[in-house]
Design a protein that fits this description.
By secondary structure, the protein is of the alpha/beta class. The chain is built from 10 helices and 8 strands. Helix content is 45%, strand content 18%. The strands form 3 sheets. A 3-stranded mixed beta sheet has the order 1-2-5, with helices on both faces. A 3-stranded mixed beta sheet has the order 6-7-8. A two-stranded antiparallel ribbon has the order 3-4. α2 packs antiparallel against α4.
């Protein structure tokens, strides 16, 4: 799994922006994967993290729905991994001096769009979130918390969280937060009608997670 700080994500972002293109032979492999499984492949990265790790091919798809096609439950689909590895070896095999170290080669998959959504949220400044909290004019809100692109509005008590959800405030507050988020959505992945926020409470945070953000988000 890559993150928004990884070089693979940054390189894929440049491809999506049209500032960079895949080079041979990885471009041929990307086209083959896309055609065979009907997915959008934005990038393929070959690397070997260090001398202690096997070589790997990272297939970076555009949407999470694309990436799910290469999973079986929580694991990657072994047959599709093997097929892509075989095709990669065939492509580079045309050039005996290709220079790729394929010792222990394996294939992994990830999706770009979910990370781009996280990055959009990360660009919102805390001061903007605090300003939104004040504009909501709800004294029962304790804090607005963000992690990995997920926004959770914490009320002070469980009863308050349930009450405001029952009164339809979740949709209203999601709409208000989306106003902050949309200007940072460079690739148009975020849809207002699909965007949601979560409700929780300081009471639950203190009692179940011992007041620890580490415990809460892990």
């Amino acid at each position: 799994m890559i993150t928004i700080t990884d070089r693979e994500y940054k390189a894929t972002k440049r491809i999506k922006q049209g500032k960079k293109a895949l080079s041979p032979p990885l471009d041929e492999l990307a086209r083959w994967v896309a055609a065979k499984w009907g997915v959008t492949v934005l990038n393929i990265v070959y690397d070997r993290p260090n001398s202690l790790h096997a070589a790997r091919v990272q297939v970076i798809l555009e949407q999470d729905a694309d990436a799910r096609k290469f999973r079986q439950g929580v694991n990657f689909d072994a047959e599709k991994q093997a097929a892509i590895k075989k095709r990669f070896l065939e492509i580079i095999g045309r050039t005996p001096s290709h220079g790729y170290d394929v010792t222990g080669l394996f294939v992994v998959f990830s999706a770009f769009a979910p990370l781009a959504k996280q990055e959009a949220d990360a660009q919102i400044q805390e001061a903007e979130v605090e300003t939104l909290k004040r504009r909501l004019k709800n004294p029962d809100i304790w804090i607005i918390s963000r992690c990995f692109g997920q926004v959770t509005i914490f009320f002070f008590t469980e009863d308050q969280a349930k009450q405001y959800e029952a009164h339809g405030k979740k949709a209203e507050y999601a709409c208000r937060y989306f106003e902050l988020l949309k200007p940072h959505d460079e690739f148009g992945y975020l849809k207002e009608q699909e965007y949601t926020v979560a409700f929780d409470s300081k009471q639950n945070f203190d009692e179940k997670y011992q007041g620890s953000w580490f415990n809460y988000y892990h």
